[in-house]
Write the structure tokens for this entry.
Amino acid sequence: MSSLRLRDLNPLRLLQKNFSYQSLPGSESRNASPSGSYRRKWSTEKLRFGRFSLTKMLALAIGALVFFALMAGGGYRHVKKKEQQQQEQPEPDVPTPFLWQAYSRLDGYYNGIRTLVPRSNVTIENQYNHTAPPRYEKPGSLPKQPSMDPIKYDPYPDYKSSEYLKTHHEVHECFLDDKDTVPVPDVYAYPGVPEVYPEPFYGSYSTLGMRDDVCWERFGRLGAYGYGDPASNLKEHIGQKSEKAGSEKVFQKIGHTDYSSVNWGDAQKRCYDKNKARFAKDQPAGKERVKRHAYVLRTWTGFKYTDHHIMTLRAQINELSLKTGGEYDVHFLVHVKDNSIPIWADDAIYRKTVEENVPEEFWGLATLWSEKQMEMYYPDPFPDNFINMAGSSIHGVYRSAHFAIQWFSQEFKEYDFVWNWEMDLRYTGHYYEFNNRIGEWGKDQPRKGLWERNERFYIPGVHGTYENFTKFVSEEMETIDIPKNDVTAQGPHPVWGPVNKFPHRENGLLNAPEGTTPPTSYARDDYSWGVGEDADLLTFNPIFDPSKTNWVFREDVTGYDNTLPVPPRRVAIITVARLSRRLLDTMHEETWRLRHSMFPEMWPPSVALHHGLKAAYVPHPVFFDRDWDLDYMNQVFNYPESKEASTFGWGEHNMLGSSFYYNAGFSGALWRRWLGNAENGEGGKKEEENGTGRMCLRPVLHHPIKGE
């Protein structure tokens, strides 16, 4: 049995040859990100069965093989190729592997900047499988130039206004150079949307307070950071040979920024020093302290930084740090894979490691860590694991990527929030608007029903406004007033305060932090508790109960008595999140003091659950490549027929056509088309020039991007 590998039990492996966006599991991910794509490292680790018997494992494997053999043949790129073949030679009797593949394709994403109209004039492409989606009918001739002019996009507070200065310190402008002569460039969007365009299927711009009446094309979004700029110091000169009608108007506005001598570490430090009065704990009467954020990019030695990465990194630093007067600091948290390098013992070795693995302009932002360092920081023993499905070390990044972010938070205590960000994320909108608005949204959320809302996808076409969604979830729950929050009680009941009444409590748990005890009972609360309280955890996928799914790592729980039932826990797929100082301190204490840990996607939500911290799933807009029927989508995503059908398990194929998930194939395809590349035989320079121009996307968070 020792030769049996976990990949052999993964039913999605049957589809692997056909999943050409990101294979499941991906060979690339096994050697790549230590924080996100590590989670499917199937083929390199031997399985330890824990409490599973041979009979159970064989039954599981056989059942999975039979189930998925009936549906094999999926995969996003394969599906499109099949569609093209069927158009040429229809095969009506060939079954569709998955129901979602039968839905009509949505093409409005690819309508270009020659078709822009005001938001009020947009024809919504989604028909939700009721009728065929409307198509943009290209007139006999289109103008060669964009139908609108780009506008400077400025989502920041008016730092110079009397209203802002009444309650805040003055914000001093930050520059790229030490002589304060090179200003931070602006970015430009178009004040419209392509005439025929889809709506997001779940999530909402209006719910988060974000503008939905603009779109972004590649020159306005990335031109300030070197895209298409012939004077840029980027090596690949990307964008200069693509379709670029009207781009000269963007460059007339933004000019040229020379990044060749920029030291981002020094620039961030100068910016903070100018504005540090804003962040001081002791503020004069009438002034509000501005909270600080560490925006932590998880990278590793050997990572290959392309020009696309460099442009994205420049955008994040400019828009989050320098434009905000130091409200954010961007950090590179670099995993040193070679455990023999004593990065903690020698400054010269530390510096050499940084210089060999990070582009020079970002040297000053890098912080190194290694698994060997974590072994010393959180030393063994870590006893009583329930089921180590990966069969790997507790100190390995695969199972404990959170160790490094906990350590980072203890080294940099000046930050109120830490953003755990990945290198394969992209955003077509403005970073500050996105980060700021979701933070404010989280602050506005009442605690009543929050954990129950977190479990569900908010689908506006089904639920209406988010206020209606809140009421709907409350009515759907059987309200049982349980002041002590006894999770062992029978029947559905809401989470209300710390979930601390489970058997492991008596064997040692930390006390919940102050302010987490409900001021009144669940039934009596009027949705006021929690309003105005910053969220301790913000995630970008629902926070679900893994015991209701067949998510493979659901029992990778360490340090709790494994003769008792597994503690209650929650999971958010993909480790991308915003974490508060309070949550990180609690995670750190649980780890070093009690040797508690769980799989990385499970640990922060579970600590928040146990200790009564405020956690929220952010309903950011997510798009799909198909015109899904909404009733079916609601059933599949919110009411799966079985554990196996959950999208957080074997039902994850339903996410292939989305713009955000760990294996979302559509996400990378859409991003590459937006950059002007051909994809699946479509798009590219000639098609854009002969058609409606380059794409102009509304703001969307893309994941994963494995190639550009």
User: Anything to note?
Assistant: The CA atoms of residues 343 and 350 lie 5 Å apart.
